[in-house]
Amino acid sequence: MAPHTAARRSAGLLLFRTTGGAGFEVLIGHMGGPFWARRESAAWSVPKGEYGPGEEAAAAARREFEEEFGHPVPDGAWVALGESRQAGGKTVTVWAVEADVDPAAAVPGTFTMEWPPGSGVRREFPEIDRFEWCGPEVAAERFVKGQRVFVDRLRDRLTGGREGAPHADGA
To answer: 52: which residues sit within 8 A by CB, 6+ positions away?
Structure first.
């Protein structure tokens, strides 16, 4: 058996806005690059990124939001949504922040990779190629499987665990 390497950890921020009654929407990002270009289902993510042992998860979440959205994190209380282990073994920690931002204002960070594979040509791609507000049902379908739990946890926080309950102040 191969020796274990350091556990991969990632942290991010899930922005949400209330839409009246107990309704809410979340801001999700479509993953950039050629692998995700023609996918919609299970191709969206919380703005997040990896961090090492020398960095706090909350600091990484703030840094990654700013890198991927291209603007500072909006002011607001951070609501802990806990952790989820993704299929690849990475553990993701997420907080929610209530804010209303314009997805069209995003200036995403980029990454470079060889494309097409084996061509020797390196191209730059956005980390997140577009952002969109959507309701929890749509977000659950679009998110990669390991992040869908965060929408459910946010709903529970906003409704006090009761579907249809009013928005909880300070959540």
So the answer is: 6
Is 143 within 8 Å of 153 (Cβ atoms)?
A: no
| Token representation of residue 108 | 């995403």
Report strand pairing: 9-20 vs 91-98: parallel
Q: Please tell me whether residue 62 adopts helix, strand or coil conformation.
A: helix
Q: What is the pLDDT of residues 10-29, one digit of tens each?
A: 999 999 999 877 699 999 99
Name the nearest CA neighbour of 9 among 120, 88, 77. 88
In this structure, the number of other CB atoms found within 10 A of the CB of residue 97 comes to: 18
Q: Are 12 and 128 in contact (CB under 8 A)?
A: no
What percent of the chain is predicted at pLDDT more than 90? 82
pTM: 0.87
Task: Find tokens 């951070």 and name the residue.
Answer: 78
CA dist 168 and 96 (Å) reads 13
Report how far residue 50's alpha carbon sits from residue 162's, in angstroms, rounded to the nearest whole number: 33
Considering all CA atoms of the chain, what is the largest pairwise distance in Å, rounded to the nearest integer?
A: 55
- Tell me the C-alpha distance between 123 and 131, whole Å: 22
Round to whole Å and give the CA distance between 100 and 159: 19
